[in-house]
Write a structure and sequence with these properties.
By secondary structure, the protein is α/β, with parallel strands linked by helices. 26% of the residues lie in helices and 18% in strands. The protein has an 8-stranded mixed beta sheet with strand order 2-1-8-7-6-5-4-3. The N and C termini lie far apart (63 Å).
Length: 175
């Protein structure tokens, strides 16, 4: 199960992780909906781009620009969070949405916790695979922890002071 578009849904994608014996150029990508590592995509791109059931995941040290020519071909891009304190995935997500124009599913995978979900959606994530040892219903509540935001981000283009109508001080208007 994952959280997608603020609902808990069945996950029909498999995330491919390479074992120590496998390499990006010789791993066999199984049939079905598979999210492959970026390096597998880059090494086997010609064969994989013929399939419509392939997604790509990026490690926190990888650059989203490596997918700039392919973002329109992928229905799912995932960003791996190796540990909850690694914030590089936020920048990757923002760059995929804002700079590269990615419009498909953007999924957070790895060490994803409830406390991060609200902020992840602010930079463009719309799907989340919380850690399996956590309660997914509780994680879903993390998307609505706050009712208002001050700053701009991917999901809010105007700062709060531009969105709020305020009346001036009546005493100041008399001078």
């Amino acid at each position: 199960m994952i959280i997608k578009n603020k609902a808990i849904v069945a996950d029909d994608w498999v995330v491919l992780r390479l074992s120590e014996q496998e390499s990006a150029d010789n791993v066999t990508v199984p049939a079905g909906k598979v999210i492959v590592p970026l390096q597998v995509w880059l090494q086997q791109r010609d064969a994989l781009q013929q399939r419509d059931d392939i997604g790509v995941w990026l490690a926190s040290a990888e650059r989203p620009e490596d997918l700039k020519d392919d973002v329109h071909k992928l229905s799912v891009i995932a960003v791996d969070f190796p540990k909850f304190s690694d914030g590089r995935g936020y920048s990757i997500a923002y760059n995929l949405r804002a700079r590269l124009g990615y419009t498909g599913e953007l999924r957070a995978i790895g060490d994803v916790l409830r406390d991060q979900l609200f902020y992840m959606q602010r930079v463009g994530f719309d799907a989340f695979a919380p850690r399996p040892d956590r309660n997914i219903e509780d994680a879903l509540k993390g998307l609505s922890d706050f009712s208002e935001v001050y700053q701009t981000s991917f999901n809010q283009k105007l700062p709060l002071f531009r969105r709020v109508q305020r009346k001036g001080n009546p005493a100041a208007d008399m001078t």
